[in-house]
Design brief:
- A hairpin with a 2-residue loop joins strand 10 and strand 11.
- Helix content is 32%, strand content 26%.
- It starts with 11 loop residues before the first helix and ends in an 18-residue tail after the last helix.
- Helix 4 runs parallel beside helix 8.
- The protein is built from 17 helices and 26 strands.
- The chain is α+β, with helices and mostly antiparallel strands.
């Protein structure tokens, strides 16, 4: 006898019961088709599913059994399974069964071939399992749609472009038409209005798209829209709730919808989506389907509201960026010089080219003692408010250092120390995160003396100046190179050269010559443009900008041109005096005669007084000869006394009992300004007086006037 514990093969009755239980208990629809794909059996779950009636379907074709789906595609799939024997898994089909013709359903079909036992057994038919996957399909579609929205909407920090990306996404993916309206103050970068709407909603239509039209509004001005509350649109902005309107203007569930909004014409279904972020509304988006499309449902509302919420966050980020960007631009323009002074030493013209982001480029022309001028161009790393404020600090520091008559390399050394201290302060206040922000800057500082025609300059990580000689020959001044500002502890060196009168100096920032390609020789093009003599400086600026930087770039740029002049012998008088106290009287006489020859007799008394005090002071402390120099420069008269002593005088208030110490006080009272500068052999004490008004006006009228930036070529130049 066999083992009683060994399982016995089931009998036919047991097999029939098992098969019947499978068809009865299975939660998914099971269908059996013969070789002609006619239904021979279905289970209980299949009966009554999506329009499948219980009665009289045996022997019928698939189209009669499951109406509303693409029966040709399903039968083709079943035929392949029957012919090849290869099972089909999760064959998805979408349709509108008669039980719910307004709602789309998705079915997943898996099929396998049925055949008898044995290798030679003939095929019997095909079995199909049908599962309703409408819910998972819609959930998956929603996730895919939201993922696509996150990739396509909010890719830029531009509010108008973000709104356009939204309408381009929802039409036709979700709707037939869409509009985005923002508060006018939000569009300008201001704060959105808070509190309830009182009378009107001042909205600006920033984007629209209609599947029936070819595009939006193009370059037309954005229309201003005001809706009389209460409407579904105003209510959505107030209570921050999205709304689904199947019959716009007649929905009793929405307060104040007795009147029809003009935007609802021919709309079969409308979604009103308030654009809310951080508890305030920025505007409203309206998404529509026309009467020929399926109406929106709650799932559509949920998807659209989530996409609108993401767009609102991107809009708010863009608004905040625009506000900071506008503040940085305003600050930067306020920190740049409104106009360069007119001086005798050089004729100047400049162009400031704003980039997409406010940067830290700056320029300046500073007047120094002895008729000299300093030309400065600098560039702070980075963009935004931090770069603009750092630029303002550096420009102020340069002006202060220039007043001390320091050499160019000394000026850059002081700026380097300042940048290092600023970096330490940022790190101390904000931690290590601030150490990488705006940690460096570049600068070129150039001093030109119109008496000696000597040009002295130094660079801190800055592009070299370009020199154009009067004959048109160009030269890149590579000397005076040094590290960028902010590294600390590294030396700077100055280079000097004598320039012929009429030479052209070009100072610029990296933003002007950085090409779009590595092979772009922007510096070479700049040399070729500037090398054509006979042009005005304003024309040279415009042509250089057009040749080197024809399109607006991300970084701002500066171009400063200066044509040198020299002071002729009829404007400068120099005398070398011995160390003899008796020579002071001679110095006064020489100065008086020179002023008479210049027609400046009105300044004789004060000038002779200053000459007497300065020469006497020099003779007292010097060990060599003393040099007296008078310079008639523009609207000023300069008196300079040179000696070989490095002891600088200090202005102090003398006591009543003091017998001396009042000389510098007299000089300060009689002059517009005075000062001391060190020279290679000692020092120079100088004092400046204004020329009488008629003489100054006559001399100023003889100077060429810089026409300033061209409004058409340089709209971003400081006013």
């Amino acid at each position: 006898m066999g083992d009683p514990t060994e399982p016995r093969p089931p009998g036919r009755e047991w097999s029939d019961a098992l098969l019947e239980a499978l068809f009865t208990e299975s939660p998914t629809g099971l269908y059996l088709f013969d070789e002609d794909l006619r239904l021979i059996r279905m289970n209980s779950a299949a009966r009554g599913w999506r329009g499948v009636a219980v009665e009289d379907h045996m022997g019928r074709r698939l189209g009669e059994v499951v109406p509303g789906f693409d029966t040709e595609a399903i039968e083709a799939m079943l035929r392949r399974v029957l012919d090849t024997g290869k099972a089909a898994i999760d064959f998805e089909q979408r349709g509108f069964p008669p039980t719910d013709p307004t709602r789309e359903y998705v079915a997943s079909i898996s099929a396998f071939r049925l055949q008898g036992r044995g290798d030679t057994a003939a095929r019997i038919g095909v079995a199909a399992e049908v599962t309703d996957v409408t819910g998972p399909f819609r959930a998956r579609s929603r996730v895919l749609l939201l993922n696509e929205a996150s990739e396509r909407v909010g890719r830029t920090l531009d509010m108008t472009r973000t709104a356009e990306e939204f309408v381009e996404f929802v039409v036709p993916a979700l709707a037939d038409a869409a509009t985005v309206d923002l508060f006018d103050c939000v569009l300008r970068g201001g704060e959105p209005p808070a509190g309830p709407v009182e009378s009107h909603l001042p909205l600006r239509r920033v984007a629209r798209r209609d599947s029936a039209s070819t595009g939006g509004d193009g370059d037309e001005p954005l229309p201003l829209i005001s809706l009389d509350p209460p409407t579904p649109y105003t209510q959505s902005v107030v209570d921050h709730r999205p709304r689904l309107l199947q019959q716009p203007g007649v929905d009793p569930g929405v307060p104040g919808t007795g009147g029809r909004d003009p935007r609802d014409e021919e709309s079969g279904s409308v979604l009103v989506l308030p654009l809310v972020t951080r508890g305030v509304a920025l505007g409203v988006a309206v998404v529509r389907r026309n009467n020929h499309s399926d109406p929106f449902d709650e799932d559509d509302l949920a998807i659209a509201a989530e996409v609108a919420g993401r767009m609102a966050l991107s809009l708010d980020n863009a608004r905040r960026y625009e506000r900071e960007h506008a503040t940085a631009r305003t600050l930067q323009r306020g920190l740049l010089p409104p106009a360069l002074p007119r001086v005798s030493a050089v004729e100047t013209a400049h162009r400031y080219l704003p980039g997409h982001d406010a940067g830290g480029d700056w320029f300046d022309l500073l007047t120094l003692s002895g008729g000299r001028v300093a030309l400065v161009v600098g560039d702070v790393e980075g963009h935004g408010l931090a770069a603009a404020t750092t630029m303002g600090q550096l420009r102020t520091a340069v002006s202060t250092l220039a007043a001390m008559d320091l050499q160019p390399d000394e000026v850059l050394s002081r700026l380097d120390d300042l940048m290092a201290r600023m970096a330490e302060e940022r790190t101390r206040l904000a931690g290590d995160a601030a150490s990488d922000q705006h940690s460096g800057a570049s600068c070129v500082y150039l001093v030109y003396d119109p008496v000696s025609r000597l040009c002295t300059f130094a660079r801190a990580g800055h592009p070299p100046p370009v020199l154009v000689r009067p004959d048109g020959h160009t030269q890149v001044l590579d000397g005076g190179a040094g590290p960028p500002l902010g590294l600390g502890g590294l030396p700077f060196e100055a280079a000097d050269m004598e320039l012929p009168e009429g030479s052209l100096l070009a100072l610029y920032t990296n933003g002007l010559i950085e090409g779009r390609r590595a092979s772009d020789d922007a510096l070479g093009r700049l040399q070729r443009v500037l090398g054509h003599p006979g042009r005005t400086l304003a024309d040279s600026c415009d042509e250089a900008v057009a040749a080197v930087r024809p399109h607006r770039a991300d970084d701002d740029a500066v171009l400063l041109l200066a044509r040198t002049r020299s002071l002729t012998s009829d404007s400068v008088a120099t005398w070398t005096l011995p160390l003899d106290p008796a020579i002071v009287s001679t110095a006064r006489t020489l100065a008086g005669r020179q002023l008479a020859s210049w027609g400046l007799d009105d300044l004789a008394f004060t000038t002779e007084l200053m000459v007497s005090e300065l020469v006497t002071n020099a003779i007292r402390y010097s060990t060599g000869t003393v040099v007296l120099r008078l310079i008639r420069d523009g609207d000023s008269l300069l008196c300079e006394v040179f000696d070989n002593s490095t002891t600088a005088p200090h202005l102090r208030r003398s006591r009543d009992s003091d017998e001396g110490g009042r000389g510098l006080l007299l000089v300060a009272q009689c002059s517009r300004r005075w000062g001391t500068r060190l020279t290679a052999t000692g020092k120079a004490i100088w004092a400046e007086q204004p020329l009488p008004a008629p003489v100054a006006a006559e001399r100023l009228s003889q100077r060429p006037v810089d026409p300033g930036p061209s409004a058409s070529r340089d709209p971003g130049a400081p006013a």
